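User: I'm writing a short report section on ligand binding and want a predicted complex to refer to. Could you take this sequence and 4'-deoxy-4'-aminopyridoxal-5'-phosphate and write out the structure as tokens? A short remark afterwards would be nice.
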Amino acid sequence: MTVYLDHNATTPPLPAVLQAMAQVQAEHWANPSSTHVPGQAARQAMAQARARIAAFLGCKPAELVLGSGATEANHHAVLGALQSRAGEGRRRWLLSAVEHPGLMALAAHLQQQGVPVTRVPVDGTGRLDLAALRAALGPDVALLSLMGANNETGVCMPLAEAVALCDAAGAWLHVDATQLIGKSPFRFAGSGIDLLSASAHKLNGPKGVGTLVVRQGLALPALLHGRQERQRRGGTENLAGIAGFAAACDAHAADLPHELERLARLRDRLEVALLDALPGVHVVGRAAPRVPNTLCLRFAELDADPVLTRLERAGVVASSGAACSAGGTQPSHVLLAMGESPAHARGGIRFSLGRTTTEAHIDTAIAAIVRALAPLLEPTASLESAA
Ligand code: PMP
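Assistant: Sure. The structure tokens for the complex follow:
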């Protein structure tokens, strides 16, 4: 049996999600923009799905811009805010130093085009450095992008403090909540956040669908021009995907507090067991509040690659934040930003649990991980002798 502990990468779609998608595809294949009866029925199905997604996120249905996922939503938030606020002389974009690689790549691209960009550092626990944020928030800042929870470490960002600081400085706040939604009782209404990105496939929904929540009254221009999504996102809607997203939201809404407790119990059990059984295990982000499904570990001085290979052979699928390139493993930008050395930043292993993870999976995983890694972690063992 393979134990899948990579739910932060993606999650398996629930049966109710697959069923909702198949049903909508069969019954409502008409274009929701068509004025004939089948088109209007499809439009109605979309409105109903939109209402359920909004209910789960705690926002108004009209605040949702439904699109292809969090990468698109992130681009829409940043490019839209920069365009909208340039006239006020607010041309600078702030983002934390530990954002998702897609946003980090957008930052490098925009900087090359001459956009002023500031990466705000995090502290050793992985939380945003609020003093650095305060110092960076000048009158030229259009937007701060800050993730709700980090995809590699699970560390939660200080959103309330960021809201207060951005408000005082007149900057918009964009939260990439892709890894927070479904892992906390978060609600958009009353949060003070201006723009929020989320993705269905991290919630046992389908890939290729997500949303940008745009606070009512915010003047955000379109990313893709056209009539759909209140002129903010052109293109025929992915109705089956949207129906799947809604079904996933329903499933999470039904038992969220209970599920969060269950995930925390299983994650903590994995963490404690590995710390007990193996020498040289370091928990990354342990000093900060974390979402309950994520455990980021470093095993002594080991690089992630050989560890992941051994784990997969032993039947446990996990992942690393380190990127592989032709030149070898690159250190994780998240761990580097937390002050880890390049060698240690190549060693982060992320175990992430989800709705389909059971107690039996965790017990199997603990035994397999200990068996696979103990030989590498003996005080005298080297990777070569143990491999
Ligand atoms: N932001 C974060 C924090 C993520 O974890 C991910 C998914 N890895 C994304 C954005 C991108 O989401 P999508 O796959 O929906 O484009």
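A remark for your report: The chain has 13 helices and 15 strands. The first strand starts at residue 3 and ends at 4.
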